[in-house]
Recover the amino acids of this structure.
C-alpha cells in the first residue's frame, strides 16, 4: 500500500523521517502531518517557524499555521498567534470546528489557551539578537526590511488512502504586526483532496495569494497530470504571468504529492525539500528552475548540508 | 464599450447604481468597486457589513474586507479590523503594498489609523440591542449562536477593460473574537483577472474556504464558459462534493462577470443580487437553486422589497 510525506526545506527532513515511520506502521496522514510540522516548530535553530522564529517589526513573534484533511476538506487555521508551542496542533483542533475554524491574533491565542494547548515563550535570545542586529542594519545601510519567509509546508498520504496538508510559519521577518501571508490561506498556502492529492507552498505570501497555486496544482492532478507536471505547468506559467502583469514575481516554491505517493516540486529560487514514500526512504533534494518550464532536481550534497548546519548555528554577535 | 457591476444581496443595489454611473462616464473599475462597497458599509440598517454590522460573541464589531485589481493581481485585505469607517478603502490602500498587504486584528486597525483613514464607532445601538437579545435567546432556548453572514461581494468592469473584485463583511454574527471567514481570502472570497473576469462569494466562510470557488469560476471562464455556466458548474458540484465528503454544505452564493460585462450567479439558498451593464440598467434579482445544477433567476418583486425594507427597519425591543 502506498504512503508518503513531502515537505518544504531541509529543515523538515527529521520530521519527514518520523512521519514515514508512522505511516509505514499504518499511522494516519493527520498524525504524520502534525508530527512533521511539530518537529520543525520545536527546533530552535530554524528561524522561520515556531520556537526560534524571527519576530515582527516590533519584536513580537507572530505565527501562522493551517491544517486540512483531504477526506472531508475540514480545515483549521491560525494567524498572528503568539507564545503557543505548536500552532499546527491548534490549527488541527480548529479543523474540527464547524464555525470559527480560522482564528487570528489575540482571538487565536485565547482559544489555544482555553483549549489547554501548551504556552511557551517562543522568542529565543538568538532570534531577538538577529532582530536587533537587523534593525541596526536597516538604519545604517538603508536595507529593505523584509527577508526570509521559509514556511514548512507538508503533504502526507497514509496506507488507508487519506491525505492531509498543512503549514506553519513565523511569516516575513520584520513584518508589520498583524501581517498574514499565504500559509494559513486555503488554496494559496495548501490544498488537499484525498481522492486526488495535495500541495503546499513556501515563499513570498503576498505574491502567492495572487495565484492560488496549491489549489491549481491539485486541480491539474485531478485532470490526470503527474505531480511534477502539475507543479511545472502551474508555477512557471504563474511566474511568467506575474512578471508580465505585476512587474516582478517574488520567490516561491511548491510541493505536491498525489494519492499514489508520487511527488513533484517547482520553484523559481534554490529550494530544498524532503520526501519519502513506499518506494524510497526520506531524502533531501535541491531544486532549481530549469529551461522551458522545467525543474532541475538533484540529491543534496554533504557539502551543502555541512554549510547549512554551520550557517544556522553560527554565533550571533 | 462594455462596462458593468455585479454585487451580492439587495443591500448592494444603491451602490451598484452609483458604480455604473461612474463607469458609464469612463470611471475606473477600482473606483466603482470602492463606491459600491462603501455605500453598503455606510448604511446603518445592513447588519452584516460595516456601520450597523452585528458584533462578535464579546460584543465587538470586527470587520473583514478585500480589494483585488485584475490588471496586476495586486490585492489587499484586512480581517478583524475595528472602528474604521470603511474597511474596503484600507484594503484598497494595502493592495498597493508589495509586502504586508494582508493585515489582521490590531495591526490592521493601527495601520488604518496611521494612514489617516477615518475612525468611527461602528457598533450602533440597534446592533448592540440585537446582540444582547440574541445572547438572551441563546441562553433561554439553547439556539445555535451562529447566524447571518451576508458579505457584500462585488465585481466591476470599466470601459478601459480593467476589472476589480472586492468584499466587505462583519462576518458571522456571534463569531469568536478573531474569527475570519472567506471574505478576505483570495480565491475563496474573491478573484479577478481583467483578461477573463471576476467572481465573489457570500455565505458560510468556513465552508467556502474548503472550495476556492471564486478562483475556480474565473478559471472556468478562461476555458470559455459563460459566467452563468461557470457559476452553475462550480457551485453545484462543490455543494454535492461537500455534502458527500463533509456531510453537509453550508449556505453559499457566488456572483461572476466576464470582461464583456456578461454575468452569472449560482446559490444553494434564496439569494438576491444587483447587476447592471452596458446593455441594462442596474436591477435587483432573486436567485434560487434549480434542478440539474441550474439556477432560477427572477426579477425581484415589489412585495419582496417592501417586506425587506420593513424587516431591516423593524423596531428592536
Amino acid at each position: 500500500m502506498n504512503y508518503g510525506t513531502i515537505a518544504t526545506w531541509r529543515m523538515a527532513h527529521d520530521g519527514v523521517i518520523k512521519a514515514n515511520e508512522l505511516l509505514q506502521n499504518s499511522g494516519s496522514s493527520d498524525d504524520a502531518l502534525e508530527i512533521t510540522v511539530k518537529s520543525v516548530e520545536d527546533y530552535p535553530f530554524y528561524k522561520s517557524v515556531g520556537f526560534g522564529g524571527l519576530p515582527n517589526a516590533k519584536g513580537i513573534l507572530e505565527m501562522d499555521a493551517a491544517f486540512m484533511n483531504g477526506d472531508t476538506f475540514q480545515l483549521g487555521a491560525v494567524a498572528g498567534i503568539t507564545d503557543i508551542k505548536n500552532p499546527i496542533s491548534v490549527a488541527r483542533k480548529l479543523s474540527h470546528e464547524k464555525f470559527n475554524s480560522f482564528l487570528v491574533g489575540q482571538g487565536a491565542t485565547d482559544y489555544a489557551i482555553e483549549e489547554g494547548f501548551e504556552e511557551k515563550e517562543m522568542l529565543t535570545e538568538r532570534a531577538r539578537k538577529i532582530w536587533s542586529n537587523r534593525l541596526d542594519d536597516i538604519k545604517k545601510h538603508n536595507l529593505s526590511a523584509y527577508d526570509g519567509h521559509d514556511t514548512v509546508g507538508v503533504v502526507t498520504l497514509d496506507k488507508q488512502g487519506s491525505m492531509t496538508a498543512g503549514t506553519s510559519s513565523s511569516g516575513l521577518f520584520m513584518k508589520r504586526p498583524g501581517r498574514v501571508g499565504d500559509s494559513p490561506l486555503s488554496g494559496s498556502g495548501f490544498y488537499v483532496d484525498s481522492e486526488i492529492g495535495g500541495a503546499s507552498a513556501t515563499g513570498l505570501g503576498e505574491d502567492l495569494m495572487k495565484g492560488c497555486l496549491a489549489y491549481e496544482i491539485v486541480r491539474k492532478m485531478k485532470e490526470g497530470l503527474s505531480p511534477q507536471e502539475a507543479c511545472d505547468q502551474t508555477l512557471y506559467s504563474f511566474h511568467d504571468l506575474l512578471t508580465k502583469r505585476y512587474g516582478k514575481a517574488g520567490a516561491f516554491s511548491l510541493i505536491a504529492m498525489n494519492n499514489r505517493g508520487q511527488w513533484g516540486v517547482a520553484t523559481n529560487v534554490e529550494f530544498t525539500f524532503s520526501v519519502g514514500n513506499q518506494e524510497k526512504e526520506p531524502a533531501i533534494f535541491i531544486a532549481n528552475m530549469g529551461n522551458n518550464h522545467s525543474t532541475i532536481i538533484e540529491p543534496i550534497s554533504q557539502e551543502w548540508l555541512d554549510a547549512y548546519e554551520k550557517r544556522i548555528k553560527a554565533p550571533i554577535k
